[in-house]
């Protein structure tokens, strides 16, 4: 109750400021879906049907704005809280602003942001994945789900606290981002620190991105967890194609993952079928190189239909088939399990 009252007081104060300043925007997303997941029957298999929040896009309430400081310089901020709308609770483990909380400056030099924000590698994955890391089997309060590529790729949180981020302005279609996360561990500045970077090229129908992130262990900074990602999309108008490849590696002893050596690739497509509707599909394969028969394959198919600029209906289905020693998916209780997921939902943006 105390946390709820504090959060309400903070939101009320920010909302009051938003009303007083025309350059502050209040926005949000409410996304709800009936979601069914099954990984077989008998011998420990499980089936779950639930009303979930944040399946296509994470439900949220946000505040963002800027102040013109003159000479092309602006001060910017963003506060965004995740919401488990099915239960009226805060997402991201109950954080007040778990999706974003940063302040910064922008101008001819680019943009600087300081605070909690997406890692560059997460933004890269989200820009390439036809499902935008969402749609089916959504984990409430997160921005990744079992059809979205992010669920199969990330071995850690896609956001980072205590982060300084710099992004260049558009330079002939190229933009770059570098980020440093302060570990804030006494006695060793390297412990729990992170370094991330991405480079993007976008021109006409083509978009391509490469990204990297390394995280040092909280106790032993010589141990690292590394994510590497490359992807591209090409829009032919009648179909938008996507392809991606990723690596996830962690040193032996890294906490809490231990040694990791996973490879992932994806091909996907978005096909407009009307002015309001589009069919989305992807095939993704993961491969745990530390074990034999460690491949997991996912086929996903979805449809989204816009009722207006701010409201749409969606549905999707996916099937994950795991090798004998692979365990990709949400409900998979052991390696080798095949998982199926289906949902129907509605999303409203304001």
TrEMBL record:
Q: Where is the Porin domain?
A: 7-323
GO cellular component terms, alphabetically, are: cell outer membrane; pore complex
- Keyword Ribonucleoprotein, does the record have it? no
Where does this one sit in the cell? Cell outer membrane
The record's listing under InterPro entries reads:
Gram-neg_bact_OMP (IPR050298), Gram_neg_porin_domain (IPR033900), Porin_dom_sf (IPR023614), Porin_Gram-ve (IPR001702), Porin_Neis (IPR002299)
Q: Per UniProt, what is one GO molecular function of this protein?
A: porin activity
Q: Determine the domain of life of the protein's source.
A: Bacteria
What is the protein's major site of localization? membrane
Q: How does it assemble?
A: Homotrimer.
UniProt name for this protein: Porin
